[in-house]
Amino acid sequence: FVVTIGYRGSLISVLSVPHQSPPINSVKEVAESPLPIASFGPFHYETFMTSQDEDIQKIVDKFIVHYDYEESFANLSDRNVIMCESKGFLDYSIRERFTDNYGFTTVHLVEECLNSYSVAFVTAKNSIYTDRIGDKIIQLNAGGLIEKWIEDELNLIARLSKTETTAAHNKLKINNLEGPFYLWLLGIGISILTFVYEMMGKSS
Known about the structure:
mainly alpha, D-Maltodextrin-Binding Protein, domain 2
């Protein structure tokens, strides 16, 4: 009886534990998600409107333009929207707003970007420093120093845990129930042997 109740409890706990869906990591998954896409100001919306990509057009159809950052972050925190901003801004915001003291965050940065933009430095026309500055920036970027400096500055806000907290969960299979099932069979066998032993004792 005890073993049977234990098996039933294990079965219920295994089947009733809520599992999160796998994280969204591509533009296609963003487009297929039922959540609307939110951005601060119309820049991204107007940019995506000219795209011929089918997935981008699906995103445009459910795009929301925010003019209040607090409202936008509140909707993201409540899981009502998917936020669309620059990667650098989102990296900063995740650490500032959604990361605890242990480095765990409650939001996930999609791996595939919707668009890419060129960022440049401007010097005076015909400046003698233009080529030197350009060469140094290329060297710093090739050496990985710019990325390191950005990471160092972000770590001053909050250091993210090395463990990915939004990793995909495996679907449950029948193998997950093998342990409790074998325990149940063992318990039944012991119960039958005990019952037979008691009956033999009474008959003698």
